[in-house]
Specification:
Its EC number is 3.1.3.71. Strands 5-4-6-3-11-10 form a six-stranded mixed β-sheet, sandwiched between helices. A five-stranded parallel β-sheet has the order 7-2-8-1-9, sandwiched between helices. The chain has one domain: Alpha-Beta Complex (putative 2-phosphosulfolactate phosphatase), CATH 3.90.1560. The chain starts with a strand and ends in a 7-residue tail after the last strand. Helix 6 packs across helix 7 and helix 7 crosses helix 8. It is an alpha/beta fold and 245 residues long. It contains eleven helices and eleven strands. It binds ligand L3UKIRZJ. The ligand O=C(O)[C@H](CS(=O)(=O)O)OP(=O)(O)O binds next to helix 10. The site of the ligand O=C(O)[C@H](CS(=O)(=O)O)OP(=O)(O)O has 16 residues, from helix 10.
Length: 245
């Protein structure tokens, strides 16, 4: 039996998609889920996603390492912000990191009551696709988007992941958002990086001099780790066999 695949383009729509037995993949290509994948790639032990700034501040007061930003600006009490380049091995290896961002951590909390929640980005695209195939469950791809509005970079990545899952033969869909994301992915070829330069988030990041991460965040298959939510924290699950479909 094939499993059902759906794409939800905004956390504001998530209640319409939620099914407790499905696996949800949260994606926030620019920049939260790319940063999370980078942190695990560089040896982080756990990431504790918190939606609320006061909660992040309280963790900091208890001596924890905190990465937190709003609207691309690092918060005054945080150790560092949301750029994947901040999550260096020197900073994160063997550490638990409390993490709060504008859109990404909010989407993770929104999905928390699903059967399982995984974190996706180009960095772990093939590993994630393989991990999802192994779950034998319906999948909902949740775009963190931008303040509940559609975002091009997340919708495009939803297309990349949908293509891999449908090509595996294990999934089927009657979801128009999947078809739209697949069409987007097709029209972005052959140069995804050039295509994404039109995204509003590219302009927002550029305004604050933070757009140095765009190419890195669109480079596939840099890690075989899939971050998965266990209780209040993300743990990295290493996928043994990666299928480069
Ligand atoms: O830091 C980011 O890239 C964004 C901030 S915003 O979209 O510029 O407000 O947060 P994220 O949660 O990664 O979307």
């Amino acid at each position: 039996m094939k499993h059902n695949l759906e794409v939800c383009f905004s956390p504001a729509l998530y209640d319409l998609y939620h099914r407790p037995e499905a696996v949800v993949v949260v994606i926030d290509v620019l920049r939260a889920t790319s940063a999370i994948c980078t942190a695990f790639m560089n040896g982080a032990k756990h990431i504790i996603p918190v939606g609320d700034l006061e909660e992040a501040r309280a963790w900091k007061a208890k001596g924890h390492l905190v990465a937190a930003e709003r609207d691309g600006i690092v918060l005054d009490f945080a150790d560092f912000g949301n750029s994947p380049f901040n999550f260096t091995p020197e900073r994160v290896q063997q550490h638990d990191i409390v993490y709060s961002t504008t859109n990404g951590t909010k989407a993770i909390h929104k999905a928390a009551s699903a059967y399982a929640v995984a974190i996706g980005s180009y960095l772990n695209l093939s590993a994630l696709s393989f991990w999802l195939q192994e779950q034998h469950r319906d999948v909902i791809i949740l775009c963190a988007a931008w303040k509940d509005k559609f975002s091009l970079e997340d919708a495009l990545f939803a297309g990349a992941l949908s293509k891999k899952l449908l090509d595996s033969g294990l999934f089927t869909t009657i979801c128009d958002s999947v078809h739209a994301s697949l069409d987007l992915w097709k029209s972005a070829q052959p140069n995804v990086y050039r295509y994404i330069l039109k995204a509003a988030q590219k302009q927002r990041l550029a305004k604050n001099g933070l757009d140095d991460v765009i190419e890195f965040c669109h480079t596939p298959d840099q890690t075989s780790i899939v971050p998965v939510l266990k209780g209040d924290r993300l743990v990295g699950e290493t996928v043994g066999k990666i299928s480069y479909i």
